[in-house]
Amino acid sequence: MENNITVKILRTTDEGSRFQSYEIERVEGMTVLGALIHIHDNIDETLSFDYNCRAGRCGTCGVVMNGKPTLACETQLPKTNEMVIEPKRSHAIIKDVMTDDPDIWKIRKDVLKFPFTPKTSQPFVIPPHQTERFNVLDSCIECGLCQSSCPNIKNGWIGPMHAVYAAKLDAHPLDTLDRSELLMRKGIRLCDTNFSCQKSCPKGITITQDAIIPEKEAWIDKNGIFFRLGKQ
Amino acid sequence: MKYRTVELDGIVIGCGGAGAKAAIVAHDNGAKIGIVSKCRMGKAHTVMAEGGMAAAIGPQDGPEKHFADTIIGGVALNDWRKVWKLVTGGKECIEYLESQGSIFDRSDEGNVQPRAFGGHSEKRVCHVSDRTGHAIIHTLKNDVLKRDIALFEKTIITSLITRNGKVVGATALHIPTGELVLFKVKFAILATGGNGAIYKYSTNSKDLTGDGVYLAYEAGAELMDMEMIQFHPTCMVEPEEKKGILVTEACRGEGGILINSKGERFMKTAKKPDGSPMYVGKLGQPELEPRDIVARAIEKEWEEGRGPVRLVVCKNAWRNEVKRLSIPAELHALVDESKLLDDDGVRKKLASMVEQFEKFAHTDITNEGMIVRPGHHYMMGGVKTEAETCSTRVHGLYAAGEVGSGVHGANRLGGNSLTDIQVEGKVAGKAAAQYAKTASHDNCEAEATIEFGRIESMLGENGIKSSSIREELREYMWSNVGMKRNEEGLKKTLEKIAELKKKSAGVKVSGARQGNVAWQEAIETVGMLAVAEIVVRSAIERKESRGAHFRTDFPKRKKEWILNIICEKGHGGISISKRPIEPIPDNLRKLIPEEKMRELYGE
Ligand SMILES: Cc1cc2nc3c(=O)[nH]c(=O)nc-3n(C[C@H](O)[C@H](O)[C@H](O)COP(=O)(O)OP(=O)(O)OC[C@H]3O[C@@H](n4cnc5c(N)ncnc54)[C@H](O)[C@@H]3O)c2cc1C
Ligand code: SF4
Ligand code: FES
Asked: Do B67 and B469 touch, CB atoms closer than 8 A?
């Protein structure tokens, strides 16, 4: 039918991964998540995927749609006749497009060894103009789409999502620590600033500009140029 | 039966604001603790909270005023001890969150600057733009991660095991692997949030299926005020898929106004029979009445053919609506344009709303009004607990946050929940850790085996799908147990629930054990039906209208109904009783203005 769309989903089977197609009717305002729920509730209840808030707040529903990391609940169906859904990259597949990031808290715990350490006691006086970069980074919903889009997550680079958190603490106007050293140990130099994380962030966080580059700069300011790293 | 056993002092069920806080405090008071949650850390429903958390920090403000507002908003059904804890605990919550690196929105001078909210007589809702819950949940999550707290994410608790009136264990299913888990514990803290999933249109996230209420009920705890369901005045209407998504009260707190299809600011023009204004609101804005009142006013416009109702937050949007709806001069005069935000203000203070309307409804809220209508939002009732400890009558069973009861009475004021979850989380965590010092573990393998048998028996082919049961339940609850209720509709719903319960015995879930969403849903559906029945029976019992509970067949509020409705598991099903409310002591009673006292208590 003219108003239908074919949803091709990469599914987990006993014989490995394979695509399965479902044909559904397009409804006005339907999102990728709406399509997955419709299939699960009405056609195939064995389809596995994740979501919670359905409003772009919790960051649970990430998938790769037509090759692009996407937050399913806030992305409307594409105009194309076919939509291909795959699991988030650089994530472990639990089943179908339900994924997991098994290392997420292990890495976060490392970053948390450098917790927010204020230079003054409370109540804090913080004029609003000092928090612009902090606010940008603070809106991260930890959806992992930037991780999923980063071609350099390997060889020990913990990835943009974790850099955003570390950089947020560094951007706190009252914080006294510097996490650039930590990020350097965690592979930030493997980032070739190709902007794919920033481009894939559903919250429009300027990751490269406001997290990655300032952290690299901070490290250089402290330690001199990059090639000294070889000595470490 | 194969299952894994984990032994701890206790578990917290749920990783929202209440659960995370309870776990931190229990840990710091010496308990060996784990968090069990259906979602991953940082993803719980609390993350959705937008407008802010109430804390009486202003120079004009104080806990006394906050106390009076909360009791007036709750129409005298509140547990005053809990309210006092809430209003005296707000400041500490803000300080704690900022000590961990959160930054609340500030004045130009750099101090925390609260905003106005419905029912609050002062600006006291502190906020991080319009993503306050997000800031709270991530801050608490990181604080959990700094500690040795065991995490069991994507794991659903299916039952609590009690022996001699004491919690000794809990059974669970780990969704990713399909593995069954037995927790052998001395205590369990319920922090499972509300019950939005039993309604067709709700602001709540998917996880909120009322599990905690069901678990507590089955374990022998009492439930209280379950008829009290808050319908938030402003939810999205279009597109259908997003119907029910919240439009934050911060929109009205930042000066937003409500107009009907004629462009009339109906909350300003409404008059009492004596000609005086029907709605005074707070801080000079009629749109800032408590939520039950605003919700009914909006619904009335829709029902009487004056919809769509629009919420206008921006100067520019107002000018455009004036032109588009050809709003006549006399109606125009009801709006003080200078009190609306400019484009820049909207983008800064209501950033999530700008994004939400852009992405879901292709609407630019700086250019036009948002179409809104009430939807299910919050469960004021829940598990009955003691104010001092958050304990239930089952030893070792605690409840904190939205799953609890009593704080908000018959109607919750906006902003009070985010404070409540942290205040109660702390109380529960501390009391439970204390309890664990003298309590002991006990055997619970036999009970676990029976429960795991029930869970396993849901797997199979060619059964009824639980999604079909849920859909029917939601439809009925929405139509008959919503903002307006009457005996006929309520009884019809009870019959429906009975029918669905029978049907649910035939539910079978197909597919692999791993990552089986339908299995989780089948487990939840059993509880949802029980919780829905409790809500309906409580609503039948309360033969008056008060706060969020509006009976068209008993439209008046009656003094003799200043009491709590208690449900517990009886021999033949739900047993219902009425319980008097402990009177507010004189020193606190004095805080409530006299004319309000007369209105509330008929004195
Ligand atoms: C859109 C929206 C906006 C809001 N805005 C505000 C606001 O501005 N101010 C305010 O004060 N309040 C607001 N509220 C209300 C407030 O957010 C909630 O009441 C509060 O967050 C509830 O927190 P909680 O910790 O009690 O539970 P939740 O955050 O709901 O967490 C419940 C947890 O329990 C888990 N769970 C449930 N059942 C089980 C089970 N069987 N096994 C294991 N885990 C389980 C869930 O996975 C989840 O982790 C808002 C609510 C919504 C929906
Ligand atoms: S930075 Fe953006 S893409 Fe990355 S986790 Fe945060 S919200 Fe998601
Ligand atoms: S379901 Fe929460 S972000 Fe999509």
From this structure: no
